Amino acid sequence: MNVGIVGATGFGGLELVRLLKxxxxxxxxxxxxxxxxxxxxxxxxxxxxxxxxxKLEDIDPYNIPKQVDFLFSSAPTGVSASxxxxxxxxxxxxxxxxxxxRLKESETYKQWYQKEPPDAKWVDRAVYGLSEWNTDxxxxxxxxxxxxxxPTAALLGLLPxxxxxxxxxxxxxxxxxxxxxxxxxxxSVSSHFPFANDNLQIYKVNKHQHIPEIxxxxxxxxxxxxxxxxxxxxxxxxxxxxxxxxAKVKDGVSAMEIEETYTEYAEQHEFIRLSPAHGLPSxxxxxxxxYCDIGWSFDPRTQRITAVSVIDNLMKGAAGQAVHNFNLMNxxxxxxxxxxSPVFP
Amino acid sequence: MNVGIVGATGFGGLELVRLLKxxxxxxxxxxxxxxxxxxxxxxxxxxxxxxxxxKLEDIDPYNIPKQVDFLFSSAPTGVSASxxxxxxxxxxxxxxxxxxxRLKESETYKQWYQKEPPDAKWVDRAVYGLSEWNTDxxxxxxxxxxxxxxPTAALLGLLPxxxxxxxxxxxxxxxxxxxxxxxxxxxSVSSHFPFANDNLQIYKVNKHQHIPEIxxxxxxxxxxxxxxxxxxxxxxxxxxxxxxxxAKVKDGVSAMEIEETYTEYAEQHEFIRLSPAHGLPSxxxxxxxxYCDIGWSFDPRTQRITAVSVIDNLMKGAAGQAVHNFNLMNxxxxxxxxxxSPVFP
Amino acid sequence: MNVGIVGATGFGGLELVRLLKxxxxxxxxxxxxxxxxxxxxxxxxxxxxxxxxxKLEDIDPYNIPKQVDFLFSSAPTGVSASxxxxxxxxxxxxxxxxxxxRLKESETYKQWYQKEPPDAKWVDRAVYGLSEWNTDxxxxxxxxxxxxxxPTAALLGLLPxxxxxxxxxxxxxxxxxxxxxxxxxxxSVSSHFPFANDNLQIYKVNKHQHIPEIxxxxxxxxxxxxxxxxxxxxxxxxxxxxxxxxAKVKDGVSAMEIEETYTEYAEQHEFIRLSPAHGLPSxxxxxxxxYCDIGWSFDPRTQRITAVSVIDNLMKGAAGQAVHNFNLMNxxxxxxxxxxSPVFP
Amino acid sequence: MNVGIVGATGFGGLELVRLLKxxxxxxxxxxxxxxxxxxxxxxxxxxxxxxxxxKLEDIDPYNIPKQVDFLFSSAPTGVSASxxxxxxxxxxxxxxxxxxxRLKESETYKQWYQKEPPDAKWVDRAVYGLSEWNTDxxxxxxxxxxxxxxPTAALLGLLPxxxxxxxxxxxxxxxxxxxxxxxxxxxSVSSHFPFANDNLQIYKVNKHQHIPEIxxxxxxxxxxxxxxxxxxxxxxxxxxxxxxxxAKVKDGVSAMEIEETYTEYAEQHEFIRLSPAHGLPSxxxxxxxxYCDIGWSFDPRTQRITAVSVIDNLMKGAAGQAVHNFNLMNxxxxxxxxxxSPVFP
Lengths: 345, 345, 345, 345
Description:
alpha/beta, Rossmann fold, Dihydrodipicolinate Reductase, domain 2, 2 domains, 7-stranded mixed sheet, globular, N-acetyl-gamma-glutamyl-phosphate reductase activity (chains A, B, C, D), cytoplasm (chains A, B, C, D), NADP (chains A, B, C, D)
């Protein structure tokens, strides 16, 4: 199988290269980049020296379907809206890692992204690629809107409880923390090492564009549509997201119900792990892997649950989940191309 | 003035040495350590080479009042309970940086610390040294229970609003994050560099001994006694605490009232700063200083405020606040011995 | 194939677990630990939850050959001397990651390790497992003394030039830098996060036990036996070694000869990469992989070459090289079980 | 005294603000910036909120002498060449933290900086501000060329031995390591957190513009002019430089002579400290302070000394040394405005 990656020089693209070079069903990668076309990926990123050395191709939506059998698009949000439709119209299967096709309501997209939404036809057809929750739809989709990193962590932690109606959804507060790679490969002030190192930054409180994405999915599985409180922090580490989530349980819900719900959920899904013995997960427990680890604590004093989920933002939060979805779409084993173990320490 | 420091080889003690060597009213330091007595501080900590070179004295509560005019005690919690009463009985003024004398209810202390509480007489007389809130009492106290690092950050952020009855206190959730120096100078697994670096850990959810300390003070300034939800995270940085706090505002409370409350509060206190232009503070903005920076955001969708406070855990969260209290107790200028500026970057 | 790992809870052992779980020829791992016997590896290291969950077996040299077909020993130096001979006498193939069997001269071992050397019989038979330089011997060995992390980086950078007689070996100076995982999994003062973070430490100057190991191998490939100057630094990162090496070139040696030597060397070896276009390698270029990247610069003003090699200390410097040797010993493809790409960023 | 700082928004400028706000002889700071004129420093750098809030003034060399009594210039190298002469001609005393006026030979400057050198008149008059070595000249200078960060660390470590003719200067190799703040406040690829974190980078081997600066000063104190070998590494920490220096001692030189030389040197200078008991210094021992700590080891096998010096690159390597020089020029106590103790941990 020949697979293409648009936006190969970003962090999502680079991680796709790492995974797909190790994928047993992929023969050849073709890398696309508008900003770096003609250059070679291993000159820009010497860690790929001897591994992937092809020239970066210009992005031409009419040529791509002639060159590859499947496309991952990891361009910045806003690019996919115009780039992907001509490719999709030619029948190609696509996984888009950007935000363009995730929000079903065009008004919501405009409000949070301050951009024009893509063609409604493809927004409608795009399947939200939260692998564990839309498994069947993903398997039959032509087009996947791969979830954002924060929504992946938050939803994998919350949906099991929301789906079973265990939480008062009007009380959900999500305090999310991310490593700096979440800010992308382009240098900026907040990611300048002397500022980011030995520092904890908070940003975009109640303004992050991942808020409507989380709400859209929560609402699908809950009986009422309530807004959430969501804040995001920049932690001085390269990879990893921790989502600390607070909510009141509904009257009468017991710790045992929560335990059973999470246990069953973890048993059913290859990449979901429940921290043993009421432990709490650390981001390093999943680094470099596609796992989402979940832990929780119930406080009888406040009737609140504190749930914690961790992922590697570039893996389960981006490229790893994309490859998982690729496997589902193609009938490959779910774990194909995905590392057997996190990198630790 | 001759000043003594018990537990000088811990991080609180070391930071006291740094500050007091620079204090215009202090002539001499005497350092006490039971575990390292006879050794010299600069051999253990070479950064003090040429700065403070005296031998570490053994801790003898009957000798200390003969040797020094004022005592800072930075021994681990549990030691002060037996160590300090004989010193206090001799009339010496003491600031205790440990947890022993902070909680007024002995049952609460037993429950959260799993230790026997100190003599009730001195617990009663101890003034909780939150400098901005107990200023007058501190000025006239013989004995200060210096606040914990997490409570300092949380209370400085919450009390202005709680005191003005702007919050529904039953909805308070505190998501606290600390640098690893908060865990002390003794190596442990969770602070071993290969585990702590590039990692985010969450610990003691709803179980941290700082919970009753925060609640005790919140209850003093609010109309009802409600338990809080509190979680703590270990961030891969050396210093710094960020406290991200969530609460519903009471019906009818406006963003302008919050702004005015915080503005007035910051104007009245030397070491409280309000982030300008609705910015949000980073821990690095206060590193090495005694400042507490506060920012906030109000979300009309949820009627929740997200307030953020940052401190240097070893400064405002320990030694800096202790020196501030020392100044208040002795009628010195509030800023004496405290750095004029954070260290940045 | 059933494979055993002694000392599975150390960093070398953990990395072996990561690699061998992904090795196509290995059916089962048996993990041994004297200190943690009876416990399960995934309870101690939750990143292995769901991946490797067996109980840790006690280390019994007479039982091990009945339980496994091949043994990796990653116990601390000094343990292998007594542990391995009874296992080897039963004909089992063993790769030892400790220092015990690396030095051929027992007096040298005593002097640098301050320990009694192992039985000379097995020291003599042990093949020094520098994969690229002892390839044939490794393929036919019963017992491999896997190289130390610093020697691997230094030797892979120096031997090509030394072997071609391009350097004045009496001028070799090696300035080595390591990430903190090189200090092992047991917490210590110098690896306590508040001390190691944002800090650069230098240690064991001219005293490191890896000095005689480097010299032994250099002398084998050079015409004279000269002592080297060697210093080691602790860098605030988890993984990675950089070896910066200085030497005078012999009279008349040109930059082109050096370039040709390195180019040919890199072309012949799967895991050796020459930095393109006279670039210089960073440790992150090889993180999580078995690569050794090499760069260099020749200064005509001083007639000195500065050569730089980088490895992941837990991979090429320990477990990765061990798996490479395991593949050579068993006739498997050299890359079996080894990741196709570094983890970046 | 009213003092001006040109280039106040760079790291050198910011550190000057921190120090000078604490200087007992300075009444007022005036901050200049061409790129940020009109903005206020505390809006760009919130750590200065409430500490230094003035508007950034445009840089006008004809106005500056009317506004301030003394000028620190911390503009990028190349700017001072044209900016400072008109100011100097008006008789103002200036300390320049850039590289423009450090090299006495204009050809050398052109070759290493690839820029036009400043007016020879002021290059001649500029005193190289290595505080401990040019103390008297500094005291009487109108204009100081403040040393580079790497040269400061290397020279303070080498000059005592070179000056006493203890070293074979033709064998000097300097392996220097710096924290990322050395690269300045402007974001770049190599200082982008995801690339710089958990990584060790080497750069500009034998090409760094600090080489001729080191050589110029070494040659002044040695009997022969020999080129040095010099390499620079980027360490994942914010502040700190370690200079590891290798050289053969001259025939007959003993370890005792080295010890005596360093001991005497440290005793004579306020900010030079010799690591006690043959210890070796870490960069964190001097963080936030103006100290240079020195340690060393002599290897009788190779007759080489390994000397190690550490500084805080923004302090002794820039602003701290500048303030020290300012004190010398004005007859103030050497330590005025300089912190009594490093910040540790």
